[in-house]
């Protein structure tokens, strides 16, 4: 930045001059009503049949997960399941059958490498492989083609061989043939009302599936994200009311078309079914803000789905290329890492977000500022200034890392790498590269102003 030519400087100045300003006071202590954070709130969901391949044949998988562990000290929680566990389409239900006699992880045949199998078997080694993961695992089983003996046989092996087994999920969206209703018509609250105490005692947490969609402009908009997450308010309260966590058990970007729930056993799960999935891996900013807003709403964990390798529009990484959403997820994990509470300074009604993350002593740890104005990558890039008061920067300045890209729709596989704190993640390996860049802003009289360009975010380190 120090070597900017005069010409470039002239281009930058008019943009900065246009910035509107929002002013906030950072609380000295997490206010009443701040939300308690899970130590590892950002998780991954792996499509059932593809899980062994993600572990064994996709080099980036372990490193991408480890990058989060490096930030938080905890491996991200994972869930294994999805359509090839049990299809939401009635006639294709119960795709995965347990076979105690196969030594293979999974056995199936498909016409093309990018097809998902309509039927498969899995063996005990599937569970042994899942047990090699250092984080917690939620394993999805099907209804065994109405052969509950088969499901129970698989569950017993999972329980005996997986020290990291958090819960078993029975079925995957088996309701989808019948109902398209979102909460409150169909959700945890509605289910809880029908459960007796015995049934409730077997529920580990309540999981909803959510695939919000639309254009990138609307998807990444902070007010749209806030209202989408707001859909779950009553459901979250219902789960909390019976002493359980509420999670998004399978989620990613898609086009929302709410479908219906799961069977009420062990883990309840339902999702908004995605009827189509738009363009490829551009959801860097949606991913980041969605994670923060979900955490703020007391959704304890979000499991971002990873589907068929080589045909996965929303995936964070593939065999050969990184996806831009990984950068957003990484920035969100960096914001939440080691945090105990989160609150928002904004009301969720505009395009500009300001979150504060607090440590266990309720002292501000970080702030995340997000300008969700859409910037296509050409023309003047607008910006938003955030004037923050109440900054107790002992050193007299605040350090920050910027999440940025050439535009909102930047795609790694099209040669436009986003950066977070100046760094990128290598295609194929997920190894962080480049020099880590912290910006520094002077704090004067407890205040400082931070400028965030359209389709950018800025993570402030307050300690
Ligand atoms: C990994 O890829 C090899 C070569 O394509 C294949 O034979 C093997 O079955 C794959 N392993 C898994 C676990 O998918
Ligand atoms: C399959 O495994 C079961 C349980 O381990 C065993 O009882 C049975 O004999 C095996 N069948 C074959 C054909 O190997
Ligand atoms: C039901 O599952 C058990 C255990 O896997 C298996 O031995 C049995 O053959 C299955 N029954 C049918 C009808 O498929
Ligand atoms: C509770 O609900 C379950 C599932 O519907 C049922 O099997 C069980 O009998 C019920 N228990 C009591 C004590 O009512
Ligand atoms: C990833 O690959 C694309 C080409 O597909 C390339 O343009 C981009 O620079 C690569 N990213 C990194 C971080 O090396």
From TrEMBL:
Coiled coil (residue ranges): none
Annotated Beta-glucuronidase C-terminal domain residues: 354-459
Top-level lineage group: Eukaryota
InterPro entries hit by this protein: GH, GH79_Enzymes, GlcAase_C
Alphabetic keyword roster: Signal
Keyword Signal applies: yes
Residues annotated as signal peptide: 1-19
The protein's name in its UniProt record: Beta-glucuronidase
Organism: Lachnellula arida
């Amino acid at each position: 930045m120090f070597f900017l030519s005069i010409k470039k400087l002239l281009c930058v100045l008019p943009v900065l001059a246009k910035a509107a300003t929002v002013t906030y006071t950072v609380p000295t202590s997490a206010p009443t009503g701040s939300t308690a954070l899970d130590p590892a709130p950002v998780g991954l969901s792996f499509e059932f049949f593809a899980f062994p391949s993600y572990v064994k044949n996709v080099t980036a998988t372990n490193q991408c997960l480890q990058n989060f562990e490096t930030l938080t000290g905890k491996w991200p929680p994972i869930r294994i399941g999805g359509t090839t566990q049990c299809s939401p389409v009635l006639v294709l239900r119960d795709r995965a059958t347990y076979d105690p006699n196969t030594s293979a992880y999974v056995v199936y045949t498909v016409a093309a490498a990018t097809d998902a199998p309509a039927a498969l078997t899995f063996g005990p080694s599937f569970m042994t492989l899942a047990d090699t993961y250092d984080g917690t695992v939620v394993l999805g089983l099907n209804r065994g083609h109405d052969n509950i003996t088969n499901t129970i046989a698989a569950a017993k092996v999972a329980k005996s061989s997986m020290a990291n087994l958090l819960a078993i999920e029975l079925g995957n969206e088996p309701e989808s043939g019948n109902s398209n209703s979102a909460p409150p018509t169909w959700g945890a609250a509605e289910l809880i009302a029908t459960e007796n105490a015995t049934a409730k005692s077997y529920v580990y947490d309540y999981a909803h599936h959510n695939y919000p969609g639309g254009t990138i402009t609307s998807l990444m908009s902070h007010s749209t994200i806030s209202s989408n997450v707001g859909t779950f308010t009553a459901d979250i309260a219902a789960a909390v009311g019976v002493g359980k966590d509420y999670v998004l058990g399978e989620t990613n970007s898609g086009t929302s078309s709410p479908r219906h729930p799961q069977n009420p056993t062990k883990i309840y799960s339902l999702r908004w079914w995605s009827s189509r999935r738009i363009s490829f891996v551009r959801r860097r900013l949606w991913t980041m803000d969605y994670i923060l807003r979900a955490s703020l709403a007391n959704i304890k964990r979000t499991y971002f789905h990873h589907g068929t390798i080589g045909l996965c529009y929303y995936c964070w990484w593939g065999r050969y290329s990184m996806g831009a959403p990984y950068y957003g997820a990484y920035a969100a994990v960096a914001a939440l890492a080691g945090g105990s509470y989160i609150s928002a300074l904004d009301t969720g009604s505009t395009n500009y977000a300001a979150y504060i993350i607090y440590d266990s002593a309720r002292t501000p740890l970080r702030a995340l500022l997000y300008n969700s104005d859409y910037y296509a990558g050409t023309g003047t890039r607008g910006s938003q200034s955030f004037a923050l008061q109440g900054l107790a920067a002992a050193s007299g300045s605040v350090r920050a890392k910027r999440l940025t890209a050439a535009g909102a729709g930047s795609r790694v596989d099209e040669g436009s790498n986003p950066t977070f704190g100046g760094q990128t993640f290598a295609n194929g390996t997920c190894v962080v590269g480049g020099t880590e860049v912290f910006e520094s802003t002077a704090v004067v009289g407890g205040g400082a102003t931070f400028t965030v360009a359209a389709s950018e975010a800025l993570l402030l380190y307050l300690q």
